[in-house]
Amino acid sequence: ERKELHRLRREPTRTVDGIDINLYANAESREDVAEAHALGATGIGLYRTEFLFLQRAELPDEEEQFRAYRDVVLGMSGRPVTIRTLDLGADKADRTGLVLRDEPNPALGLRGVRLSLARSALLETQLRALLRASGYGPLRILVPMVTSREEIREVRSQMKRIARELRTQGHEIADHVPLGAMIEVPAAAIALPGFIGSIDFLSIGTNDLVQYLLAADRNNEALSDLYTPLHPAVLRLLRDVIRLAHARRKPVAMCGEMAGDALYAPLLLALGLTEFSLHPGTLLELRRVIRECDLTALRGRLPLLMRARDRAGIEAWIESHRPNA
Ligand code: PEP
Ligand code: MG
Fold this sequence. Notes:
By secondary structure, the protein is α/β, with parallel strands linked by helices. It has helices spanning about 1-5, 30-40, 60-75, 115-120, 120-135, 150-170, 185-190, 190-195, 205-215, 230-245, 265-270, 285-290, 295-300, 300-305, 310-320; strands at about 20-25, 45-50, 80-85, 140-145, 180-185, 200-205, 250-255, 275-280. An 8-stranded parallel β-sheet has the order 7-6-5-4-3-2-1-8. α3 (about 60-75) packs parallel to α5 and α5 (about 120-135) packs across α6. The two termini are about 20 Å apart. Phosphoenolpyruvate binds near residues 206, 207, 255 and 256. Magnesium ion binds near residues 184 and 205.
């Protein structure tokens, strides 16, 4: 079986009825990027920049960040690379003094884009490094924890100002660097019709979306039964977000753990998802399963899925739509 998976490195991620699905990789290290490239990933769908900031007492400066981002872009030799701005919060062990230490409720605190906007020098440095890296190949910037339109508009206006400054300083940067939002706060998903016009692409972060939608801590083992994407509220929100994005012709990917679980692939295809971003370690397994799926048939079974009223109902749908089941 490992041999069969290995062979799939050079095969397209094409459904039985001939539709190509994009498999991007989540990455946070050089090794992940090299693996993604070797496995034929469409690109990098989520590059988490937190690791550059963790386990150290000093913030990485512009030059260090620039080199790291440029190396990701070069490592993918022309395939698109999506780099996420810093998503630190009191839940992650940073030693730089950037993050408030004792927030009562870290998941609901000053994290993600909120922290970036509160520390403008931090965002400025990161955007300068990212925009400089855009001169080396296709790069997209992804913003975490977006809750409302103002946040993304603020990031975009800073991006525009910094791009102008960089050009005046003689840096070569891409003409257009797409700016996207993580959809992981329920308010952003629900209010999406009002701000989808302000973003170039979307990436659904189910790890946090599920946590906030179900009010269930993603790290609390006592809640592991509750914390699941197999809830009708989650499926409905996913369906609506994907549908709206397609209607408005905005690329939409899913980069939470849900996207990397082959068990969920038929369900996600039925919901309309065509771009998955996942850890390179599971990429070939997902490709194998998708190559056995009939997209047209699955899409036709969406109404049945949406009628499921509980987890058992959703699981029954999944069970009866297993490829080769
Ligand atoms: C998510 O929330 O689904 C996500 C991909 O981001 P992270 O796991 O880094 O919070
Ligand atoms: Mg998240």
